Amino acid sequence: MRHRILRIQIAAVLAFPVMNFEITTMQAQEKSVRPGINDSFKDPNVKEFVERFEIESREVFSKREEILKACGIKEGQTLADIGAGTGLFTRMFSKAVGSDGRVIAVDISENFLNHIQKTSRELNLRNIDTVLCKPDSTELEPESVDVAFICDTYHHFEFPNKTMTSLLGALRPGGRLVLIDFKRIEGESTDWTMSHVRAGQEVFEGEVLDVGFRKVAEYRDILKENYFVVFQKPSPDDSEVVAPGGSVIAGQPSFLAQSPEVELAITELGGHMAPVTFYRNSDSPIQPYHISPWQEESGPQMPAPVLVPLRGDFFCMPFGGNSQSVSGESHPPHGEVASSKWKLLANERKDDIHRLTMELETTIRKGKVTKEISLIDGQNVVYTKHTIEGFAGRVPLGHHATLALPERLDGVKLSASPYRFGMTYPGTFSDPTQREYQALQPGQRWKSLSQVPMAWKGVEDADLANQPTRQGFADLVQVFNDPAQTPVGWMTATFVDQGYVWFSLKDPAILNSTVFWMENRGRHGYPWNGRNRCLGLEDVTAYFADGLKTSSEENLLEREGIRTALELHADKPTVVPYIQGVVKVSSAFDIVKTIEFQPGKITLISASGEKVTVPVRHEFLASHKL
Question: Model pTM greater than 0.70?
Fold first, then answer.
């Protein structure tokens, strides 16, 4: 479900209950926190309030379109506009929920409700109902509402605890509460705000939380005079409590973001990105990323926590298996960032950019990672930025992009920016004693993806540029970029039968190699069970997938001048930018030969001479800004 509703209009309307102490005590003893604050709404002159509320000088009115656009309301939802006032947002919400949805205008003033009924009839808006509330109750039916919207109204609640308790009961499990109200900050807010609004954001949030809501998001870039936060009513099954813009997808609570071209989901657990739908409004949408086949299955505990949400692209730090401890640190495979819960900070839209921001604090090695996923209108591209604070010391890290493979062998053509050499994993990647099998000769160097030595003598070299390769094996190789030949590293996969190219762009000074994880039903232990088929194209700085110890200490690659870990500093954040995208191509377009970079766009050129130009702000890799 996706709800981030905003609302503006009515600066005063209700009178409802508050809660600063224990709920049972407050429900029994609560008195009005602002007696008389709603006197002007007992018999309001609606025309005068329309002139006050629906005017460009009022922030929530002037930002009404941005606010509505950021809400992402779905058709068919039931939305309660609490303190509906003159009905500005009631009318906007009516169109957003569609003919199958319902908007309930709730207000303490009968005059306002009569006005809403009249304007609804005039505009032929047939999905609007009205409810006359009480000073201490919304008077809504139990579990009848998906989203409740309160804008510039909460500070008029005389009995906030009782009112919010009634609203909590009116929401369905997992339902959202959107709260917008005036910032009340000493020395910054106007004299009117300081005298009229009884408390600031921290107090109001505390009252809402005390009733039983949980805060799931805050949007900071749309409004300046008001704050905008979102709460949620917990579900009986806590695992299904998801943040605004979120839903349970393929077994995992996920945060959602979308542009006109792209819709994506990020799991709360591990921050794994999939599914991602490019060209989402076209006749042939594209979903390139892999989702592990055991999602939504019950079974024994996973052998590694990263396998629980395993899908799509995710950030790894430390990258690799991390089977050995280092200086007392024992990290899970691919690190806490790939298997712990992320906190949603914002899911917002500004101008032509939709950005989802998440945060995770690491505990094994102290640090904080901020994840930003951005979509730009008009582009089938995903921009990712991870900002790492703390976590000082050497560490391998990178992106673990994992693509879904077609059944047909050789149906995907791989190409990479210039690299110094490639190498098969020097050790045993797939262990036959664990019912795992690999086909490539360990520790072999090569110059071309099309000529990689096999494990058996007398057998023709493997052509890794054509995927998937033979069934029944799981192999790992790594190619090491040559930054002297290109300031932007790139990787492409042409899906010939499906008619598109997936691409990734990176700064090779930060992510200096690509690990290829080629899995075609080559593992038969739990949870693989001989059924997993995927292609990992993992842009990293690491020693293969060994983890922190091998990557951060001297190794054969480091001895050749290839860095296998980044040095992070306690007093200086490290930023890892990354770009992924999809472009449709003709049947004549085969493997990518090269990519040309122009301001704000790239041109992919195939070996057959076909060209396709894609709008991409690749400058983001250097500036870290969009």
Answer: no
